[in-house]
Every structure is written in C-alpha cells, then in structure tokens.
Write a structure and sequence with these properties.
three-stranded parallel beta sheet; binds NADPH dihydro-nicotinamide-adenine-dinucleotide phosphate; Rossmann fold; globular; alpha/beta; six-stranded parallel beta sheet; 11 strands; 10 helices; 2 domains
Length: 283
C-alpha cells in the first residue's frame, strides 16, 4: 500500500477534544450544551447509533437528552415533542434519527425543528444557506469528510473533485462544500454514463453510493485522495466501503479505511455543531 491512511478515529478524537475544551469554557459561563436525540421505534442499527451519540456527547461535556418513542407514535405527537424541544432552553441541538416509520412524514418533522437547533443541517433553511455558500449548520457526514480532506492536506481550489451519490444527507451537501472551496465538482449518480472515466479524471474522490467496493481501484487517478463514506455489511458480517480498498490504496496518495475513516467523524461533527449552537445563543 502506498497511500497514506486517513485515520478517522484519531481525527475524531482530536475534534472531540476540541469540543470538550469548548464545553469546559462554556460551563465556566454557566452554560451546558444540550443535545436531544429522538429515536422512534426499535430499529437495532439506529438504536446502537443513538446510544453511541449519547455516550460521546456526555464524554464531551454535552448533556444528552434521550427520547426513545414507540414506533406507533403519531406524527402529531412527534411534532408536539419537537416543538417542546424547540422551546426548551436547555436543549441547543435536536436530532431526530432517520429513517422514521412510514406513517410519519419525515419532511414535516425536519421542517418542525427550529433551524437554530438543527444540528444535523437537514432543515430546508440550512440546506438553502449551504447552497448559497453561507452555511450555518452543515450535515455531519460531509462536514467530517471536509475535515479529513484538510487532514490529508488536499489543495481543493481548482482541483477536480467527484462525489458519487446525490443524497440530501451526504452527496449533495458534500458537492456544495467542495464547490464553496473552489473545487471543480462532478456529482455522479446511478444514471451517470462512464463513471470510471469521470472518476479517473478526479483529484479528489468522495464515494457515497452504498454499493460494496463498486469503485474499482483501477479507476483511481494516481495520487488522488479518496474519501470512502460507504458502510456495507458483507455476508460474513464484515464492514466494507464503497471503494475497492486494497487496489485503490496502491494508487491514491491518501485514503480513508472502512471502518475507522468517515464513520467516527460523523458523531464528532454532530457534537461540534451542538457546541456551535449553544455558543451562538449566548452571544
Ligand atoms: P442513498 O442510498 O440515499 O444514496 C445513494 C446514492 O448513490 C444515490 O444518489 C444513487 O443514485 C447513487 N448510486 C447508487 N448506485 C450507484 C451506482 N452504481 N453508480 C453511481 N451512483 C450510484 O445513500 P446515502 O447517501 O444515505 O449513503 C451512502 C452510503 O454512505 C451508504 O453506504 C451509507 O451507509 C453510508 N453512510 C455513511 C455515513 C457515515 O457516517 N460514515 C453516514 C451516512 C451514510 P440515484 O440518486 O440516481 O439513485
């Protein structure tokens, strides 16, 4: 392997350390940042994720308020809870774990979250601010990818970047962030013709398509930086990314592993957003 490994665990630990330093400083002013984490139903993957968010929050001096609700809860009841959290001065960030059960309109719930407490960055107002190049809260996974690109020393201005996947959670905000940093951005998706050719031209590759090792090592331009967002579970229960890691690492200058790359960054950036939210109410 010739690529430098971008150690998301180590970078995330550093970001969490910075968050802790900020929460200590805020506590000295009598302010404890609070994060409400709302989980509807008992999807095991979501439950694990929510628990690790709450644990990481507490370790960083952020108060975590857990709301685990039965999957039968009505949309109206969930909206009532969100509104009460909007009004609660001890809560600075609100996260509603997705996906929600099908009888609840996700859009309604996201739109009910106060944009000032929308630490996931999914509210249309925050999406619009990012699109206009004046971001407030940015979705945590793409924000983590940007931090890893900084760690890699990526020269983004003028670079050719490709994002594979155009979801609202990862791909689209990632493309907006790279555009804001003056990269020339291609946003690829399932209808892209000649994906290999598009990737071969890119200096920076962000793979977020959710297809195990679909991005082949031979498609990586020598020296490119590869950020692999994908989390795919093999039949044997192993976690692998969207990029064919071993072959890509022979050509890239830097690459994230899966697991241990982008994954740990997401929670760290959530906590950073929560502290930003808390800090902004005191000004
Ligand atoms: P979505 O399923 O919402 O979006 C996938 C995107 O990839 C779509 O835009 C789709 O195109 C595109 N796509 C699918 N197949 C192909 C293909 N063969 N070629 C090119 N593009 C393709 O996924 P998410 O954005 O939510 O997640 C992407 C991956 O990232 C998943 O593996 C997920 O587990 C992981 N993830 C990891 C996180 C982390 O913390 N590390 C956080 C969030 C997600 P189209 O729009 O045309 O359908």
């Amino acid at each position: 392997m010739t690529a430098r490994l971008l150690d998301g665990k180590a970078v995330a630990a550093r970001v969490r350390g910075e968050v802790l330093a900020r929460t200590v400083a805020l506590a000295a002013r009598g302010l404890v940042p609070g994060l409400a984490v709302v989980l509807v139903g008992e999807d095991p993957a979501s439950a694990v994720y929510v628990r690790s968010k709450a644990k990481a929050a507490r370790e960083c001096g952020v108060a975590a308020f857990d709301y685990t609700l039965p999957k039968e809860i009505s949309e109206a009841e969930l909206l009532t809870l969100v509104r009460s959290l909007n009004d609660d001065p001890t809560v600075h960030g609100i996260l509603v774990q997705l996906p929600l059960p099908s009888h609840i309109r996700t859009r309604k719930v996201i739109e009910a979250i106060s944009p000032e407490k929308d630490v996931d960055g999914f509210h249309p107002l925050n999406v619009g601010l990012l699109a206009q190049g004046t971001p407030r809260f940015v979705p945590c996974t793409p924000l983590g990818c940007m931090t890893l690109l900084a760690e890699a020393g990526a020269e983004l201005a003028g670079a050719r970047a490709i994002v594979i996947g155009r979801s609202n959670i990862v791909g689209k905000p990632m493309a907006a962030l790279l555009t804001a940093r003056d990269a020339t951005v291609t946003l690829a998706h399932s209808r892209t013709r000649d994906l290999a050719g598009e990737i071969l031209r890119a200096d920076v590759i962000v793979a977020a398509l959710g297809r195990a090792e679909a991005i082949r090592g031979e498609w990586i331009k020598p020296g490119a930086i590869v950020i692999d967002v994908g989390i795919n579970r093999t039949a044997e229960g192993k976690l692998i990314g969207d990029v064919e890691f071993a072959a890509a690492a022979e050509r890239a200058s830097a690459i994230t592993p899966v697991p241990g790359g982008v994954g740990p960054m997401t929670i760290a950036m959530l906590l950073a957003n929560t502290v930003d939210a808390a800090a902004s109410v005191t000004v």
